[in-house]
């Protein structure tokens, strides 16, 4: 595929990537973690939020699903602007919108207000996917996988810590405090990033409408993007299914854990961040295909093993969650590194498509979680969760040896 056709200015030679200082990489990783956490604070809290705002048990997973749907919409509608507008201003403006949406969640008096705010939180949290390509722009090709892996490690730490942190805060001060505190953090982070991030002005004169139209052409003409998105959509569906359903089983009569107990359980998932830099190193060494196969197989086996939770095995659930997280995070970095090497001038759009497609898988996983649990308990959850990565493995088996 000729990526220059999608941006006439792409033919101009790009300046050599200057590199990124360690303190700035740490700042970007921290920002990514804090922003991404907004998508997951509600997962262990749906049992508290739903009755408080008038949602029944079957519709409880809407709390998570709408946030993920908003994120998908933001990836398609907002992230492509990073290929057109000055990046620092775009990031900070989007973060201020996230602040407003989080404040609305914290103050929501009823179901409609909360669900609209949840959708907007997802929409504005796409600022994280403006930062990851920005970091990729700052470094040369040879070290891009490692830098992206380190920045994404911060993102993943935020995802993993979001669940235990929100559980502990809710246990102490109630669920509304979670979103209120996050609104304050987003304000602080917007001010810090505005002060310390370098400016980046893309050499692109396309209109917004042209940017959005180009998304279809990129998807149609980039087979690596389609495959990587399909693999991770299945992996992320399993991830979302697991972490949306597991608080329900942990709080149920089989285990009877409090919010604090659920928090400690979720904290174990933080170990998944260890997979990100390793996956980045593997990708830089040319082992993307091997890593992908191992990651997908790991997720499938871990979910199948978690079925022992039906018999009251907390250890089976815990080990399953840790291993699922390791596989999902490794697969994310492998896919994102492959996407971010395809074309400098369309990098944000490629990344947006990749994220939007796999978050659609995540929304599917969270949407079926409460329904599967209500009708079939953890056994149904485990069966459906095993099917998602298994389907990805079947598709992966058709991949040629030279595919990225």
Task: Provide structural commentary.
The chain has 404 residues and is mainly alpha-helical. The chain has one domain: Growth Hormone, Chain: A (Up-down Bundle). 73% of the residues lie in helices and 0% in strands. Helix 4 runs antiparallel to helix 5 and helix 10 packs antiparallel against helix 14. It starts with 21 loop residues before the first helix and ends in an 8-residue tail after the last helix.
CATH architecture: Up-down Bundle
CATH topology tier name: Growth Hormone, Chain: A
Q: Can you give the helix content as a percent range?
A: over 70%
Q: How many H/I helical runs?
A: 15
Please report the first level of CATH classification, the CATH class: Mainly Alpha
Largest sheet: none
The assigned structural class equals: mainly alpha
Which superfamily, in CATH terms, is the homologous superfamily?
Answer: MFS general substrate transporter like domains
Order of helices and strands: HHHHHHHHHHHHHHH
Number of DSSP E strands: 0
Mean pLDDT: 84
Name the overall outline: globular
Spans of 5+ residues with little confidence (pLDDT < 50)?
Answer: 8-17
If you compute it from the alpha carbons, what radius of gyration comes out, rounded to the nearest whole angstrom?
20 Å
Supply the number of structural domains.
Answer: 1
For the terminal residues, how far apart are their CA atoms? 14 Å
């Amino acid at each position: 595929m000729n990526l220059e056709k999608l941006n006439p200015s792409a033919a101009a030679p790009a300046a050599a990537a200057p590199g990124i200082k360690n303190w700035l990489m740490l700042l970007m990783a921290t920002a990514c973690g804090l922003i991404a956490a907004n998508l997951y604070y509600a997962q262990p809290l749906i049992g508290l939020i739903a009755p408080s705002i008038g949602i029944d048990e079957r519709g409880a997973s809407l709390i998570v699903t709408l946030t993920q749907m908003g994120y998908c919409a933001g990836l398609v509608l907002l992230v492509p602007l990073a290929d057109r507008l000055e990046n620092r201003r775009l990031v900070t403006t989007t973060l201020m919108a996230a602040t407003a949406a989080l404040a609305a969640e914290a103050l929501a008096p009823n179901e409609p207000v909360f669900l609209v705010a949840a959708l907007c939180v997802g929409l504005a949290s796409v600022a994280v996917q403006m930062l990851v390509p920005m970091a990729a722009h700052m470094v040369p090709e040879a070290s891009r996988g490692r830098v992206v892996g380190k920045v994404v490690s911060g993102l993943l730490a935020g995802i993993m810590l979001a669940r235990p942190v929100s559980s502990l805060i809710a246990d102490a001060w109630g669920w509304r405090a979670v979103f209120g505190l996050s609104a304050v953090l987003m304000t602080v982070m917007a001010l810090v990033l505005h002060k310390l991030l370098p400016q980046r002005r893309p050499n692109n004169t396309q209109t917004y409408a042209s940017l959005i139209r180009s998304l279809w052409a990129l998807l149609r003409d980039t087979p690596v993007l389609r495959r990587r998105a399909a693999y991770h959509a299945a992996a992320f569906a399993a991830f979302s299914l697991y972490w949306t359903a597991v608080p329900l089983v942990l709080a149920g009569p089989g285990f009877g854990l409090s919010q604090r107990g659920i928090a400690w359980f979720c904290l174990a998932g933080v170990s998944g961040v260890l997979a990100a830099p390793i996956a980045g190193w593997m990708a830089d060494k040319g082992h993307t295909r091997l890593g992908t196969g191992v990651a997908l197989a790991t997720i499938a086996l871990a979910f199948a093993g978690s079925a022992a939770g039906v018999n009251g095995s907390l250890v089976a659930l815990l080990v399953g969650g840790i291993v699922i997280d390791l596989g999902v995070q490794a697969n994310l970095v492998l896919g994102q590194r492959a996407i971010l090497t395809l074309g400098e001038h369309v990098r944000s759009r490629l990344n947006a498509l990749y994220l939007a497609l796999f978050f659609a898988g995540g929304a599917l996983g969270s949407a079926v979680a409460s329904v599967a649990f209500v009708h079939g308990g953890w056994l149904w959850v485990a069966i459906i969760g095993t099917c998602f990565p298994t389907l990805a493995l079947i598709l992966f088996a058709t991949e040629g040896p030279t595919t990225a």
